[in-house]
């Protein structure tokens, strides 16, 4: 079987990394397309995943910019994939892939785990053959997106628990960043400011940066999403903030951290899956996955920098959630059964 995977954003790299290895171990060939956005290309290189950049850079924060970039990238993807003989196309929140695949009569699976990015998911769900989501998302929220129940395939728990199964952190990442292991290590992820679903200002995260960056007992590693965020954080010139110069092994950083504070979603859930204390400063509408994690006490809302508890953790990997990644892969490849829902 020949498989096409489109990786359009940084968090999709760890998601697909074990699935690509599993597909190739099963004797399938895999081709990966990507776009030049955030650290996606850097991370593909870091993990040794062959890829081809197709289409323009990200369209920016505006709806018009996103639509214009999509109008260019979609036909570029179609031209690239035409006549390559793909049997199936897979994506996680890359809504352009199902559209291109459908136009070429290639069955596709579209996965996501945050249901309120309604513009992109409405496109992806309607175009895809199969929609793969966590069991936490109620069907009525999927119906709005065009993902009727007969099209949906569900997995238990967190996607991060699947792709991080068996993960062992590489402690050398701390040395490469020059971190002092005696200080409290906090890993921070910036807000998704260019995402359509995150239109709220988030002063809380900026205040958290200033609180941590001025604390001599802390080393706070900040992982920005964009060059603009990187420049803004560097301009703060706070002594306890550390910004890696290039893409790093973020999963190892999270696993070794004493605390994670993230304004996004994926890093929050990676921390949960790895048993690391985690606080969210997300300013948008919480999705069903995070609602469940908060109800279970596995994710906590941060309301003020004064609520931060900065302590060294006594152990690594307590309360890990591990799932069999083969389950996730098998749900994705059911899209090759094209009889219903096309």
CATH fold node name of the largest domain: Rossmann fold
How far the N terminus sits from the C terminus, by CA atoms, comes to 20 Å
Shape: globular
Q: What is the CATH superfamily of the largest domain?
A: Glycogen Phosphorylase B
Strand content: 15-25%
Q: Using DSSP, what is the number of strands?
A: 13
Largest sheet: 7 strands, parallel
CATH architecture of the largest domain: 3-Layer(aba) Sandwich
Q: What is the CATH class of the largest domain?
A: Alpha Beta
**What do the pLDDT scores average to?**
90
Strand order of the largest sheet: 3-2-1-4-5-6-7
Total count of helical runs of at least 4 residues: 14
**Which stretches of 5+ consecutive residues score pLDDT under 50?**
none
Helix content: 25-40%
Walk me through this protein's architecture.
This protein is α/β, with parallel strands linked by helices. It folds into two domains: 2-165 and 324-336, Rossmann fold (3-Layer(aba) Sandwich); 172-307, Glycogen Phosphorylase B (Rossmann fold), CATH 3.40.50. It is built from 14 helices and 13 strands. The chain has a seven-stranded parallel β-sheet with strand order 3-2-1-4-5-6-7, with helices on both faces. Helix 4 packs parallel to helix 5 (118-127). It is globular, with a radius of gyration of 20 Å. The mean pLDDT is 90.
């Amino acid at each position: 079987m020949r498989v096409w995977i489109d990786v359009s954003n940084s968090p999709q790299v760890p998601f697909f990394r074990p699935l690509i290895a599993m597909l190739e171990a099963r004797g399938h060939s895999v081709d990966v397309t990507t776009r030049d956005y955030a650290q996606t290309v850097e991370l593909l290189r870091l993990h040794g995943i062959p890829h081809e950049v197709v289409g323009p850079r990200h369209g920016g924060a505006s709806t018009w910019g996103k639509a214009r970039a999509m109008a260019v990238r979609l036909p570029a993807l179609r031209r690239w994939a035409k006549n390559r003989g793909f049997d199936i196309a897979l994506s996680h929140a890359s809504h352009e892939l199902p559209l291109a695949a459908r136009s070429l009569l290639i069955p596709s699976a579209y996965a996501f785990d945050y249901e309120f990015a309604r513009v992109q998911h409405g496109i992806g769900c309607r175009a895809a053959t199969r929609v793969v989501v966590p069991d936490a998302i109620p069907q009525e929220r999927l119906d709005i997106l065009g993902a009727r129940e007969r099209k949906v395939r569900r997995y238990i728990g967190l996607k991060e628990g699947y792709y991080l199964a068996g993960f062992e952190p590489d402690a050398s990442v701390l040395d490469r960043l020059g971190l002092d292991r005696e200080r409290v290590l906090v890993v921070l992820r910036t807000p998704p400011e260019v995402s359509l679903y995150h239109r709220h200002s988030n002063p809380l995260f900026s205040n958290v940066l200033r609180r941590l960056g001025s604390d001599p007992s802390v080393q706070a590693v900040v992982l920005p999403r964009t060059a603009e965020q990187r420049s803004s954080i560097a301009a703060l010139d706070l002594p306890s903030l550390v910004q890696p110069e290039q893409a790093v092994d973020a999963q190892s950083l999270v696993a070794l951290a004493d605390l994670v504070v993230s304004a996004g979603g994926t890093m929050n859930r990676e921390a949960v899956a790895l048993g690391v204390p985690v606080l969210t400063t997300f300013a948008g509408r919480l999705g069903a996955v995070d609602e469940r994690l908060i109800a279970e006490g596995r994710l906590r809302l941060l309301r003020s920098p004064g609520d931060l508890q900065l302590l060294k953790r006594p152990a690594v990997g307590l309360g890990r959630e591990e799932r069999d990644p083969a389950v996730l892969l098998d749900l994705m490849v059911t899209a090759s059964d094209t009889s219903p829902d096309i």
